[in-house]
Each structure stands twice: as structure tokens, then as C-alpha cells.
Amino acid sequence: MTVSEAVAARRSVRGYLDREVSSATLRELAVKAARAATGGNLQPWHVNIVAGEAMRRLKAVMAERLGSGELETAAYDIYPRELGAPYRDRRFQVGEAMYRHIGIPREDKAGRMRWLARNFQFFGAPAAYFVTVDRGMGSPQWADLGMYLQNLMLLAVEAGLATCSQECWALWPETVTRFLGTPPERMLFCGVAIGYEDPDEPANRLRSERAPEGEWLTVVA
């Protein structure tokens, strides 16, 4: 598989087979991904792998937390509070496309909330990564995290695995950091579900569109 093929194949997968991923594979992917570009060689990422019994415990914890109706203060704003065009439109369009695939109309608010709750069960994935970063790091180091995550997800494609990066975990920083035992000087950035794709899951038919290059590419020559 070429890099171009892996980039073209990668997408967010929201339904997984009941099939474990070996701990050796999970570790290997995490280690290989650390060859990501990083300014000043800071390598600001910290990574936790959750699988097996630990994953079952975390899913149970999250089911209880969601059922409690309580909320936590988010680690950060996942989107800008004033999200203008064209970004707001793109977000709306991909969301509506998702709900069309899974057959939940806009008026079915309860159904959509149940679907959103599946995020916190990793959409059935048997394993996940959590990425944290020292609180003193700035925007350039957050970019390094993105490059690490892209490496991780492309390596997963090469290994025949599927992923879904999940910034939604930033909504539950206290629960996650307590579960992981993360030191207070580090903050939660995101989770990444990983496993073998369920080909029968309707949500997995979604492939988000990309804006035409004329909207974002400028060549200066």
C-alpha cells in the first residue's frame, strides 16, 4: 500500500466487528506514529492505549456517567463558538449526511442523542488511544499532535484496521483523566477508536466530501 492509497482510504469508521486487536499491534502503531514531524523535536504527545478489560470498564463508566445527566467542563472548545461560513455549512452537511445513512430524521431528537452517546462506547471498537498534552504547550504543539494522529490513522489503514478520531472526549476530561491516572499537568486532547470495520454498519457508508481546491488552494509563482 502506498501513502497515497492510505490517505485515500482513511475515513472515520463508526461501527466495528467484535474482534480484538492484539496488544502488540496497538503498541507498534503508536510507536511508529511517533516519527511525526514535531517542531524543535518536542514530541509533545502522551498516549494511553485502552483495550481488553480496561476498555470494558471504561465503557461501563461512561454508560453510568451519561445516564446520570451530569456534565463536566470541557477541556477546550471543540469548535469556535462563533463558527461562520463556510465551516458551519460543512459541519451541518456532513452531520445531515450521517443521519441520512443511519435513518434518523432531524425531528427524532431522542434517536440522535442515542446515536451521539455511541461516541462514548467508541462505536463498539475493542480498543482506543487517548492523547494528552502538557497544559503549558501552545498551538504549534497541538499541530504536532495532529501530525502524530494522522500518522497513527494511516498506519492503521496499512494494518487493515479502521479508526475514528474523537475530540468529543474533551467533553469528559475529569472522568477520562481519572480513569487513565493522567497527572494534573496534562490535559486530554482526544480519543481514537480503533478496530476492524463492520461492513454492515450503515454509518460506514458515509464518506465526507472535500471542498474543491479553488476554495482553499492558492499558488504563488
TrEMBL record:
Keywords assigned by UniProt, alphabetized: Flavoprotein, FMN, Oxidoreductase
Keyword Oxidoreductase annotated: yes
InterPro entries listed in its UniProt record: Nitroreductase, Nitroreductase-like
Entry-linked SUPFAM superfamilies: FMN-dependent nitroreductase-like
Nitroreductase domain location: 8-196
Family: Belongs to the nitroreductase family.
Protein's name in the database: Nitroreductase family protein
Organism: Sphingomonas lenta
